[in-house]
Amino acid sequence: MYLRGRLPTVEARPPLDNQYALQNKRQAILEDFSHVFYTEKKVGEAFNKYVVENYTQHNPNILDGRQAAIEALTPLYSTDGMVFEIHQTFVGGDYGLVHVKSVTPGQNDTAVMDMYRFEELKIVEHWDVLQTMTAGINPHPFF
After folding, report:
1. Half-sphere exposure of 140 toward its Cβ, with a 13 Å CA cutoff?
2. Is there a contact between 98 and 113 (Cβ–Cβ < 8 Å)?
3. For the residues 92-101, what does the mean pLDDT come to?
4. Which of 40, 46, 68, 126 could make a disulfide contact with 63, Cβ separation 3.0–4.6 Å?
5. Cα distance between residue 82 and residue 104, in whole Å
6. What sections of the chain are H helices per DSSP?
7. What is the mean pLDDT of residues 8-25?
8. Mean of pLDDT over the chain
9. 99: exposed, middle or buried (Cβ count in 10 Å: 0-12, 13-18, 19+)
10. Which positions ≥6 away from 86 have C-beta within 8 Å?
């Protein structure tokens, strides 16, 4: 604990080995969650395994709760020809990021950045940012 500008004693700091182990476990969880969710499109399986029941959702079109996310996302992920290409996953501290290209037949592709917050080894919160991919002057946009 920090008290008026004084650094915590060594005993008050969590051991670095534990921090690295936790981050490595979260990275493995995020990679498996992402594979099952985006690549295999097994929404229920991914959410039931890695997301808490009272999950907080910041997408304005989906209600809070694991079941609400499953119900909202399953039909979307069942769209014929829809593909999600995972480009990066990253975990730092309590947060994980997944950078995804969403390809839907007949529509412009979408660049997606999903951010998840962890508590221990479970996902408890989600934010997303979506950008329609259009041609521009930059030779390496989006990814």
Report:
1. 1
2. yes
3. 97
4. 68
5. 5
6. 16-34, 43-50, 66-77
7. 73
8. 91
9. middle
10. 34, 35, 38, 39, 98, 99, 100
Both structure tokens of 71: 């119900």
E strand or H helix at 91, and its extent? strand 83-92
Q: Is residue 3 predicted with pLDDT exceeding 60?
A: no
Helices 16-34/43-50 angle, 10° precision: 160
Using a 10 angstrom Cβ sphere, with 0-12 exposed, 13-18 middle and 19 or more buried, the burial of residue 43 is: buried
Q: Which residues, at least 6 apart from 56, have a Cβ–Cβ distance to it below 8 Å? A: 64, 124, 125, 126
Question: Does the structure show a pLDDT above 50 at 41?
Answer: yes
pLDDT of residue 141: 87
CA-closest candidate to residue 75, choices 35, 106, 44: 44
Query: What pLDDT is stored for residue 15 in this prediction?
Result: 64
Residue 117, classed as helix, strand or coil, is strand
